[in-house]
Write a structure and sequence with these properties.
By secondary structure, this protein is of the alpha+beta class. The protein has 11 helices and 6 strands.
Length: about 280
């Protein structure tokens, strides 16, 4: 057994984000870093990824829970649940994430507060959308070049390259795009326009509406976005459903009737004239 897996000692939360390569602090940093990269994880998952014993990982997790760096929750089960209680998964708290956040969160939040106060919330929304525009265009080639069924995964890879530790996995009715880390979570907590603009960009990139199920900014362990399955067979090249643009009911029949029976030379006109005209051919007054 490794010496780093001996009885844990308390480590200040602020030191969790500082990489060290020996002792308890180094191992605990590896544990928290793995949770950032892969999202909420079980002790067994962490032990396998870090090549440590499950018992040793649990001791470090217990210490991190006591320090308020991670929290334990029941693992969500999608589909049919097996026997027994779901395994516990460990996710970072706000204290735990603080070691991985950028140092300019407070400055960014203050700047957006100034914008909102002097220019209004619409200005914050415009800023959020323009901020995402450059990243959206950067992601577009790799997402659009992927097959329709692989575009969520391609987007996840692009997000991971920017530090969002994202992944895509099958889910009922489509896929779930998960972001296990959000560099702007503290700012987005005060300004949800950042999350809304990001979801809008995802929808444009993937060519379908998406639904945000959870966000780190609102206290969830992962930013989760539902991406519905693309029904390619029911959509035309422009995205409209095939057969949706036809003539209105009854319009073609009326037009054909008018073409065949012009109002000046139709049989009904002749019949009216005959009834109203005496044998001499004169019309009555």
């Amino acid at each position: 057994m490794r010496t780093s897996e001996e009885a844990p000692r308390r480590t200040p939360a602020a030191a969790v984000g500082t990489p060290e390569h020996d002792g308890h602090e180094g191992t605990r940093h590896r544990v928290t870093r793995s949770i950032v990269d892969h999202g909420p994880s079980t002790a067994a998952d962490l032990a396998e990824r870090l090549e440590l014993t499950p018992a040793g990982v649990r001791r470090h997790l217990d210490a991190l829970v006591a320090e308020g760096v991670v929290e334990a929750t029941e693992q969500r089960v999608y589909g049919r649940r097996g026997r027994g209680r779901p395994a516990k998964v460990f996710a970072l708290t706000d204290v735990g994430r603080s070691g991985f956040h950028q140092e300019y969160d407070e400055l960014a939040a203050d700047a957006l507060s100034f914008v909102a106060e002097h220019l209004g919330d619409e200005a914050v929304t415009k800023f959020a959308r323009e901020r995402l525009a450059a990243r959206e265009e950067r992601y577009r080639p790799s997402v659009e070049s992927a097959p329709p069924g692989e575009r969520a995964r391609a987007l996840a890879e692009a997000l991971s390259a920017d530090g969002y530790a994202a992944s895509a996995r099958p889910a009922p009715g489509g896929e779930q795009l998960c972001q296990h880390h959000c560099p702007v979570a503290h700012v987005a907590e005060r300004f949800p326009q950042l999350c809304e603009a990001e979801a809008e960009a995802f929808a444009r990139l993937l060519g379908t509406h998406v639904q945000r199920l959870a966000t780190i900014a609102h206290g969830d362990g992962v930013c989760t976005t539902h991406v519905p399955a693309v029904q390619a067979e029911s959509a035309g090249p422009t995205g409209r459903r095939v057969g949706s643009s036809g003539p209105k009911a009854g319009s073609s029949g009326r037009k054909n009737s008018e073409d065949k029976n012009p109002p000046r030379r139709g049989p009904s006109r002749l019949r009216e004239s005959t009834d109203a005209t005496p044998a001499s051919g004169r019309t009555t007054s």
